[in-house]
Amino acid sequence: MKLIGPFKQIVTLADLPLRGKLSDEQLQVITDGGIVVNDGKIQKIGNFEVLKSDHQNIEVETIDGEQIVLPGLVDSHTHICFGGNRANDFAMRNAGKTYLEIAESGGGIWSSVQHTRNASEEELLRTLLERIKFLISLGITTIEIKSGYGLDVENELKMLRIIKKAQGQTKAKLVPTCLSAHLKPRDFDGSNVEYLNYILTEILPKVKEEELAARVDIFIEKSAFQPEESKDFLLKTKDLGFDITVHADQFTPGSSRIAVEVGARSADHLEATIDEDIEFLAQSDTVATALPGASLGLGEKFTPARKLLDAGAIVAIASDWNPGSAPMGNLITQASILATFEKLTTAEVLAGMTFRAAYALGLEDIGKLENGKKADFVTFKTDNFQNVLYNQGSLKADRVYIDGNKAE
């Protein structure tokens, strides 16, 4: 057992509701506080001197200078296991080339598939661990990671096995998701439906057997999989015992409704979501996940987060870090920019990167600083927690704790 502190401010996010809009006045902020950690869990939070007096023989980890504490951040949507680089895609897109023109010139998702298939397991693991280390340095302690650049049995399993191996080499919690339904690979001789059936019969049984992922994702879009075939696939996936999530409404509306109808954990992207589907999402338990990094990378409009929150939806914010449309990977920077354009309160942004994102992953023991929760938290050298978003990512995390211990 140990006491960590004192902290100028501890922003607990305790007692905040799961859904809907939030005001900054709802934030619980403990000043001159400390955190008692025992066996990887938070045992008590309160005034540092009082806690020190109440626990006479406790180990004390003293924090020098003024620092604030937030719950460990949760990035609930990433594609950080990949080979290669698509800087040329970005340059071509900014020069006015269309998605189709970029794909026809050798870019796009298929480029990442080829690079990932050709990369050795050692290279993929090394670069994945480098990206995980970077995310931890930002204060992110829980990271969802998708497959989806393999698109056949051998390479999808290769990706998921590497993610599993990475879990043994990092303190961060990794949440693997099988995204074999990213798009139909060019070398698959058959229709979309036949490829989805191939995933159901050839890939997912092996994923389940090896316990490589408990979640399945699909990209519903004109350029990927169509609504009805996707809905059938998702229902069959649920029957196999997987949680499901959906890439929804990125360029065209309608697929977020499917996500709700099949009981998906989350519908991610939503840049093209229309008002009637906002209401549909708001009345469900499906998390609406905004991915501002994709908007910035593609020059597209942002997820209508303000409308979603006002309607009562559960809104999370994730980075979508991937080699094509969202190469930045800095969640705090992206969320700060989203807040500016969508007029989100600090409380709404912090909730979206913590307990609301955790809910999208089915995790209940993270995202808030409360007694009994996992002792994952991040500190910043500042006297005011508002400076974290105000500085739009330039104020770096100072200390990152996972299970109550500093992450190196």
From TrEMBL:
<feature type="domain" description="Amidohydrolase-related">
    <location>
        <begin position="269"/>
        <end position="405"/>
    </location>
</feature>
<dbReference type="InterPro" id="IPR032466">
    <property type="entry name" value="Metal_Hydrolase"/>
</dbReference>
<dbReference type="InterPro" id="IPR011059">
    <property type="entry name" value="Metal-dep_hydrolase_composite"/>
</dbReference>
<dbReference type="InterPro" id="IPR005920">
    <property type="entry name" value="HutI"/>
</dbReference>
<dbReference type="InterPro" id="IPR006680">
    <property type="entry name" value="Amidohydro-rel"/>
</dbReference>
<keyword id="KW-0862">Zinc</keyword>
<keyword id="KW-0479">Metal-binding</keyword>
<protein>
    <recommendedName>
        <fullName>Imidazolonepropionase</fullName>
        <ecNumber>3.5.2.7</ecNumber>
    </recommendedName>
</protein>
<dbReference type="Pfam" id="PF01979">
    <property type="entry name" value="Amidohydro_1"/>
</dbReference>
<keyword id="KW-0369">Histidine metabolism</keyword>
<keyword id="KW-0378">Hydrolase</keyword>
<comment type="pathway">
    <text>Amino-acid degradation.</text>
</comment>
<keyword id="KW-0408">Iron</keyword>
